[in-house]
Each structure stands twice: as structure tokens, then as C-alpha cells.
Amino acid sequence: MSEQARKTAEALEYLTGFGNEHSSEAVPGALPIGRNSPQRAPLGLYAEQLSGSAFTEPRTHNRRSWLYRIRPSAAHPPFTRIDNGALRSAPFTESVADPNRLRWNPLPDPAPGTDFLAGLWTLGGNGDAAQRAGMAIHLYAANADMTDRVFSDSDGELLIVPERGGLLLHTELGLLAARPGDMALIPRGVRFRVELLDADARGYICENYGQPFELPNLGPIGANGLAAARDFQAPVAAYEDIERPTEVINKFCGNLWSATYDHSPLDVVAWHGSHVPYVYDMRRFNVLGSISYDHPDPSIFTVLTSPSDTPGLAGVDFVVFAPRWLVGEDTFRPPYFHRNVMSEYMGLIEGAYDAKAEGFVPGGGSLHNMMSAHGPDHETFERASAAELKPQKIDDGLAFMFETRWPITATAQAAGADHLQRGYDDVWQGLQRHFRA
Ligand SMILES: O=C(O)Cc1cc(O)ccc1O
Ligand SMILES: [Fe+2]
């Protein structure tokens, strides 16, 4: 964490738009015009294509970026296995999937000197990283910058949700700042290192092994609403010209591998393409809801979705519960009691969540797996059943959900954690019978 990092973050410029074909050069003339791979790239740079989709995928799903860099990524010694720390990957076989409702307090504070990568701790997930299907949920807690080391994830893209402290993400394509209230996305394979903007940082990560996240279709909602494409911000090219040993750590099929380059691989002077990192301010989400009666399903709060091969059935959705008005008449307004074929992991960025009076805290999380019965806790049910139904602003919190088509298996460390709340079931105790025939 440095004053310099904070100043840099304040002054960042971005390119805007989701899924765009962007282009950017940190040095004028670095980007070839009219072709990707001239016989000699401008300024003595090396041209390199980074593909996020098969070459042959339809244009709507095709993703690649051309990078113009000081050294080609290929110039590196062999990668060797290093310890995975608290990172785990799918398939999750060390424990069994649990139908119980689970809830955790925040991670304990990490030891001094823990950077973003060392501070990753896997809660659980599903699918199979090597099959490029499913997802993992990681938490991070860090109090040090990543110096002379960068990370890349071959297994999937990383959707990062800061809960405490800002992050300055130095990526191959440039810099992004992500603070609580923002979400950032690092595409599969893009190298990055994390500098902290505050003394410590904490948050959530959805590692998506499947199809890259995209904006949901809007159907009858129309041409506008939910997250606007133009609010997604990609970096402008920025490069490091550092001739110093730099450790490149790669997550590959569930394991961490390391190779030491003799230079910083964040040396991309210009780039163009669609496989790009981005940041999105969740407070810009245009929340839609019922203006007559009933509590709509939370799919209307979908920011991004990773489709599966079945239309409408997401590998994973990223859903945000942002400030909004509730006006439903003759309506039980908080989330209803339900059992869902999809599996729901929820986290809280700030404040409170309208289905839980207490116990669901910022930095904590809950897991309501496939078909598990959940909904308002006892206190919330009693309060909302008796509340006067005047227009009500929910503006004291920001929660989110990773919702996935496959059950989530908690890791052994999550299932046995000291910060797992034993007795979570009790929040639904005391719900009286009111039936009178
Ligand atoms: O369980 C939850 O709190 C998430 C959720 C919210 C909502 O408004 C409706 C359904 C649902 O699963
Ligand atoms: Fe739910």
C-alpha cells in the first residue's frame, strides 16, 4: 500500500463498454494499423495473440486480444509446482456436498505480509476446472502488495468483489482500481498483480471455469435496464519495463505452478481486442422491481451471467441486491421462503440484507445449496408480516449472490472452519403455526 498507488488509482482513465473491440497504446505508434502481425511490429515490439475462445466460436462469443509487448511470453524457463496454500479447485472431492444451510463469519485476519495471492482461501465450488465447467468461490484477505510476482489463472476468469479495502490491479492490459461497491473481472489467462489501496483488503471471488460472463438478455424489459454496457470500464495500455526477476504463478488444472522470468511480463505497450479485464461500479446498477404486488425472483438483479449449453440455465449468475424501493401492495416484501434447484452463495459488502435480521455480516457468506429450504429468518418474517406497507427504501446494504446450476461442495477447510456459524438453522426456529381451519 502506498500513497503513489492511491494517486495512480485516482488518476486512472478507462475505455468504456462491455464486450467491445477496444484498442489502446501507451506509446504513440505502438499499435500496428490495418494488420495484427506485421513482419516487424512497431517499435521493436513482439506481437502475441491471447485467445479467450476457440478461434472458431461465433462472433458473438469470440474473444481474443492482440498484445504488443517488449518480450514474448514464450521466453520463460519451465514452470514447477509450488504449494497451493489454501486454494482448492474443482472437482471438489475432499468432502461431500452438504444439503444443510451453511453460514460463515468473515475470514480471520491474515498474518502480516500476506499478499492477495497468498491470501486466497477456497470456500467451495462445483464442476471440473479441466472440463471448463463450473465455478469456485474463493475469499481473499491481504495486507501486503504483490511485489515481483504476478498471477494468472488458466482455469477460468476471476470475478472479484472487494468488501474491504481497494485494489489496484496491474494487468497485462493496464491498470484497474476496484474498491468496495465495485466488481472487477480478470479474464482467463491474463496476468496481473495486486497492489493494495488501503492497509488491508478483503473480498470474494467467483472463479468461473465456464463460458465467460456476459450481460443477460433483457427480453421484455427492453433496450435498457439492469447493468448498462457503457458502465463497464476497461484499462488503457500501461506497461512495466522492469528487467528484474519476476515470479509468474499460474493456476493450471487446480494447481499452482511457478516460473521466474528475467523481466516483468506486464510489458504490453499496446493492445487491441475483446479479451479484456474490466471494472463495474455496482451502484450504477439500474434496479428493476415490482410496482404492483409480489416479490419478483432475483434474476431481475442479474449483473452478468455465464451461460451453459442449456438456454436460460446459467453455469453461474452474478446477482446484486442494491438499494431500491419496495412498494408492493398486499405483499410479503422480503425474499420469500423457497427451495431452489439452483445453488446460492451470498455475500455482503456492506450494511444488512433484507431477509436476515442478524448474523449475515459483511465479509461473511451463506450457502443455500440445491433444494435447501431457506428464506426470511424468524425475526424478519414476523416484522414483514406485520409491517405497514408504505413505500419503503431499502438503502442500508449491498449484497450479492453467485447462483449456479450445480450444487456447491464446501472444501474441508470451509466445512470445518472455526468461523462457520454452528447453529445457523436456529434462525428459522420459533416460526409458529398460525393455521386455523
Ligand atoms: O435466498 C436469498 O436470499 C436470495 C433470494 C432473494 C430473493 O429476493 C428471492 C429468492 C432468492 O433466492
Ligand atoms: Fe434463495
UniProtKB/TrEMBL annotation:
Q: Which Gene3D superfamilies match?
A: Jelly Rolls (2.60.120.10)
Thylakoid as a keyword?
A: no
Which reaction is this enzyme known to catalyze? Answer: homogentisate + O2 = 4-maleylacetoacetate + H(+)
Q: Which UniProt keywords apply?
A: Dioxygenase, Iron, Metal-binding, Oxidoreductase, Phenylalanine catabolism, Tyrosine catabolism
> Where do the Homogentisate 1,2-dioxygenase N-terminal domain residues begin and end?
13-282
- SUPFAM superfamilies listed in its UniProt record: RmlC-like cupins
**Secreted as a keyword?**
no
Q: What is the stated purpose of this protein?
A: Involved in the catabolism of homogentisate (2,5-dihydroxyphenylacetate or 2,5-OH-PhAc), a central intermediate in the degradation of phenylalanine and tyrosine. Catalyzes the oxidative ring cleavage of the aromatic ring of homogentisate to yield maleylacetoacetate.
Query: What family does the database annotate?
Result: Belongs to the homogentisate dioxygenase family.
The name of this protein is Homogentisate 1,2-dioxygenase
Name the species this protein comes from.
Answer: Streptomyces spororaveus
